[in-house]
Amino acid sequence: MTDYILGIDIGGTNTKYGLVDRKGNVVNEGAFATHAHEKIEIFLKELKKHVLPKLEGKSVKGVGIGAPNANYFDGTIKQAANIVWGDDVPLKKLIEDLLGLPAVLTNDANAAAMGEMKFGGAQGMKNFVVFTLGTGLGSGLVVDGKVVYGHSGFAGEIGHVSVNPDGRYCGCGRRGCLETYVSATGIKKTVFKMMADYTRPSVLRDVSYNAMSAEMITNAAKDHDYIAIKAFEYTGQIFGQKLADTVVHSSPEAIFLFGGLVNAGDYLMDPATYYMEKFMFKPFKKSVKLVPSSLMDRNAAVLGAAALGWEEIDKDKVIA
Amino acid sequence: MTDYILGIDIGGTNTKYGLVDRKGNVVNEGAFATHAHEKIEIFLKELKKHVLPKLEGKSVKGVGIGAPNANYFDGTIKQAANIVWGDDVPLKKLIEDLLGLPAVLTNDANAAAMGEMKFGGAQGMKNFVVFTLGTGLGSGLVVDGKVVYGHSGFAGEIGHVSVNPDGRYCGCGRRGCLETYVSATGIKKTVFKMMADYTRPSVLRDVSYNAMSAEMITNAAKDHDYIAIKAFEYTGQIFGQKLADTVVHSSPEAIFLFGGLVNAGDYLMDPATYYMEKFMFKPFKKSVKLVPSSLMDRNAAVLGAAALGWEEIDKDKVIA
Question: Which is an annotated Pfam family here (chains A, B) (predicted)?
């Protein structure tokens, strides 16, 4: 009988789940609305309703959960911007009690890193970094084969290194954090700056701030839209510079990029690679691969959450 | 009979050594000129002459070596700026053959981190960073109780994150690296900038660039010299900002500062702490200790090199 881990990825809008075997095959997938702005009891009720029937007749060894602002050490979610269930929600314990299975929790970017290592392009790698370019910019560091949690459990918040202390206002309360430039939201802000700076016509000039998406900007770039291409160049330049700084910290073998913005392909990868190499400390030049996640076309968030569960089993710790 | 590790710290000017027991007691200490700009055979001959007699009658289990640009993985020194023995010197093997003892090699900042963990203020800590403020700015990262070497063996080169891509020229060939601002050399450059920017009198205006030392700047600051105090503030501001960036990478419990510049005490620590906190990502605020190394008054370089040797014995790897 095949053993499975239940992988759960909790996003601000939707929660995805699936049963993942040791090889990364996913069965009994599904999704439901997170109800992030209601009481957590609603979320738990929905989770039970959707997931419990999918466990029947399966050998499920445990649960791996990825969520924003989740802390691996104490199993809680702290002050997440898009999930308002409370300041310090003991999610690991709540789900363990609900499903009667041992669980492990980490933030979504750490889960992505674990997924890349177990099932993706980082298989066999000991040192790498994953960036998730979504609404914000998440990151997961792997050093010597293990996800870095640090003293606090919150290591890998590279989206909050400073690009410019007088720069764009960030949701974290400071100014000029990397994620205000490099993320779906960041490139949208950059498009608005470019529309102010340049006189060129652009299809994007017909779209309001609230209506604009990273996908529209990507499509415009593919149609040779000057403003969109400039916005990708600007994004890639800032990203590349900061990637070079990340490399001198932990000396990764590769950096994986994940998220919708990565669908822009060379429009993002070319300037990011160019500026990463331009600003790279000499001993690391031409030695770090910058590549899209190989899980882009798969259920990466669920795979990552489940990979975390398998990791715990293999080190015989939380889940046994 | 007490067991010892021979600790050797190779600097651009002098090489220091000593026998270090498990508790960090040092005996048979000594030093000799490195002859860094002559052939390596001269260094090896000097090493043998000074060190071999010190090993007689002692139970020495192995050798720990700290040196600039040393690579832990392959035991070589690569293109060190101040030691011109060649591009790729197999120092670990040369010393093993010379002394007939197993050896392990790493760079001086990694050795300092290991020393802090085994014998200094980081005892019991699992996640911390050590910065060595000397001619340049070295750094050693410890994650989950282990020094981070990364994929290349050269992780922890935080002295080469970018402060300003159009800034001061760096020995590494780029511009605006952190070590061009935060190091003994960096603060000297800053004093010259401050003498240009301000009209205030200063004892430092009587000293040439080549004659000026970090110690003179420290002494001037202690005498309430305006230029010297401004230079420390400028140094501390840039350092503090970048410390906040380091914290979001690896989430250390503490950051230890080592080197002559740290003797300036509050003139450096106050602005560095103030700006680290000012730029700190909220979840880490007031949670990271910034403190001088507790090995400042001891033979820290030799302790660090020896700590590396003890670490290898304890994990039963290179030295057995």
Answer: ROK
